[in-house]
């Protein structure tokens, strides 16, 4: 290839990938002539295929957690032929910094991470306390010496993904979802751990309030195969005859994108699906317990973050270290309904 390109090495989590998307908006604005490729794990690649700034998505062939030095060297040789001017390494590990270094990409931008001196030659250092995730990634578009003040953060672009109408129509047809009726999407899961999960009974209680207001509302329960049990518990608690779609593990990630884009509103824990809903600019109710609602908030035009902000939070633990999970258990369906109801009334 004769034209110079930019390489982005994606984060390994869906939510982080979504929050890194504004970085690509800034890079495209700075170099509109330069194609942008994203190297991403297969589980995250679908996110980047919904980003308008991405010219090509390259899926990583590496096993999770393995160094695989020979395989990385071989892959770097392939990347060298593509002609990259620069690379932005978003994971903080040495493994991912090795690839653009071995590929001979001249400018390699990233955070210090695992002491990656030499492999990263435009090195950034995070603030203390750490800045919010969107600002964290977006800062890589600027020189490391650029001051990142509150005013600059406010001016950052928001995460933005695009789902074509045909993608929405296809999944609705496959799942027999009525496009003439409203749909509420609920995402009871969270990959990080059980502490981040609002109880399934609370999701059910909130859905019951929605159905009381409008019995024609369709309820779509979204998540991975790990969320089947929680989604089944929600579905079992809803009135007989309600249009409930338990889709945990039953959709691809692009189909989940399409369903979220179709939804009248989305209620989710601090998870990848929350950030997808935000990037699709859907009305979002975000539920936070052990994580900081200011660190990774939703950016939709219509969004609410709900957190009790207990003294023990944010503990950022996978499971509640005190054994009670009060930060989520005491966040009642009534509190959530107070936030969600005005969104549905629009």
UniProtKB/TrEMBL annotation:
The keyword DNA damage does not apply. Keywords: Glycosyltransferase, Transferase. Gene3D superfamilies: Glycogen Phosphorylase B (3.40.50.2000). GO terms for biological process: lipopolysaccharide core region biosynthetic process. It is an enzyme of class 2 (transferase). InterPro entries: Glyco_trans_9, LPS_LOS_Heptosyltrfase, RfaF. GO terms for cellular component: cytosol. Belongs to the glycosyltransferase 9 family. This is lipopolysaccharide heptosyltransferase II. It comes from Duganella flavida.
């Amino acid at each position: 290839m004769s034209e110079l390109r930019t390489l982005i090495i994606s984060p390994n989590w869906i939510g982080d990938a979504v929050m890194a998307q504004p970085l690509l908006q800034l890079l495209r604005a700075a170099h509109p002539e330069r194609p942008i490729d994203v190297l991403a794990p297969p589980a995250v690649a679908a996110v980047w295929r919904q980003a308008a700034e991405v010219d090509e998505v390259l899926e990583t062939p590496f096993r999770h957690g393995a160094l695989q030095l020979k395989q990385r060297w071989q892959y770097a040789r392939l990347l060298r032929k593509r002609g990259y001017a620069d690379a932005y390494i978003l994971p903080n590990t040495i493994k991912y910094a090795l690839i653009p270094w071995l590929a001979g990409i001249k400018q390699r931008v990233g955070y210090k991470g695992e002491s990656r001196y030499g492999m990263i030659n435009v090195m950034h250092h995070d603030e203390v306390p750490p800045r919010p995730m969107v600002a964290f990634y977006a800062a890589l578009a600027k020189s490391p010496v650029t001051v990142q003040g509150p005013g600059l953060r406010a001016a950052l672009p928001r995460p933005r993904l695009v789902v074509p109408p045909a993608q929405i129509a296809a999944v609705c047809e496959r799942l027999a979802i009525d496009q003439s009726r409203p749909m509420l999407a609920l995402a009871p899961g969270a990959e990080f751990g059980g502490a981040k999960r609002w109880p399934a009974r609370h999701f059910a209680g909130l859905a019951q309030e929605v159905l009381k207001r409008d019995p024609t509302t369709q309820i779509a329960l979204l998540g991975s195969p790990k969320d089947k049990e929680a989604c089944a518990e929600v579905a079992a608690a809803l009135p007989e005859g309600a249009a409930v779609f338990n889709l945990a593990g039953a959709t691809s990630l692009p189909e989940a994108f399409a369903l979220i884009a179709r939804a009248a509103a989305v209620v989710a824990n601090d998870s990848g699906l929350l950030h997808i809903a935000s990037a699709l600019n859907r009305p979002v109710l975000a539920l936070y317990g052990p994580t900081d609602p200011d660190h990774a908030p939703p950016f939709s035009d219509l969004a609410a973050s709900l957190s009790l902000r207990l003294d023990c939070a944010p503990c950022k633990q996978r499971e509640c270290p005190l054994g009670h999970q009060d930060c989520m258990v005491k966040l009642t369906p009534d509190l959530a309904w107070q936030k969600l109801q005005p969104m549905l009334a629009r």
